Amino acid sequence: VNKYHIQAHLKDISNAIQNIQHWVENIPTNDSFEIENNENLRILPLYDLPLSAGIGMEILDSNVSFEEYEVNMDKGDFALRISGNSMEPDIPDGSIVLIEKCAAIEDGQVGAFYLNGEVYCKRLSYKEGITFLYSINSNFSPIEIKENDDFYSYGRILKII
Q1: Less CB within 10 Å around the terminal CB: N or C of the chain?
Q2: Do residues 112 and 80 lie in contact, with contact meaning Cβ atoms separated by under 8 Å?
Q3: What is the dihedral angle through the alpha carbons of 117, 118, 123, 126, rounded to the nearest 10 degrees?
Q4: How many CB atoms lie within 10 A of CB 64?
Q5: For 91, what's the count of Cα atoms within 13 Å in the CB-facing half-sphere?
Q6: DSSP letter at 146?
Q7: Residues 133-153: pLDDT tens digits?
């Protein structure tokens, strides 16, 4: 994108060009200013649904809307937005999590799970032959996965944004 392209698209917005020029002039030139290396950028789908809403099992294979989301990671298959505070302070409400699809998640890992019509972001735990989903926020009780539950792992959380 060159300056003429930007000017053509922003010409009707009051002071847009002047504001951009001012921002450019104020970019720090010291060592504390870092420019991200964008060589490894990839596009992942950020699905338009919260990670704890009641949704069907095939959410990722259906016609759920999504937006393209740029990431600077080699791994990861999709992204979801967190809704709720059960994983705070580590995963705040409204944050975006990058997820790597995998059917099996190891004990202690945080993942995205489907359970009886609901989708959760929780820590998986196995204790004495019983599977539990735990919240990081101690105000939430563990969820026991029972034998007849409809339970599925979408994948493990790779990164929190």
Answers
A1: N
A2: yes
A3: -20
A4: 14
A5: 26
A6: P
A7: 999 999 999 999 999 999 989
Length of the chain: 161
Tokens 């002039």, residue located: 25
Predicted pLDDT at 34: 61
pTM score, whole prediction: 0.67
- How far apart, in Å, are the Cα atoms of 24 and each of 20, 21, 27, 29, 143? 6, 5, 5, 11, 51
pLDDT at 77 over 60: yes
Give the C-alpha separation, 21 to 78, whole Å. Answer: 36
Which residue in 115, 104, 111 sits closest to 150, CA to CA? 115
CB environment 92-128: b (16+ within 10 A), e (fewer)? eeebbbbbbeeeebeeeebbbbbbeeebbbbbbeeee
List CB contacts of 85: < 8 A, sequence separation 6 or more: 92, 93, 137
The Cα 79–Cα 142 span in angstroms is: 24
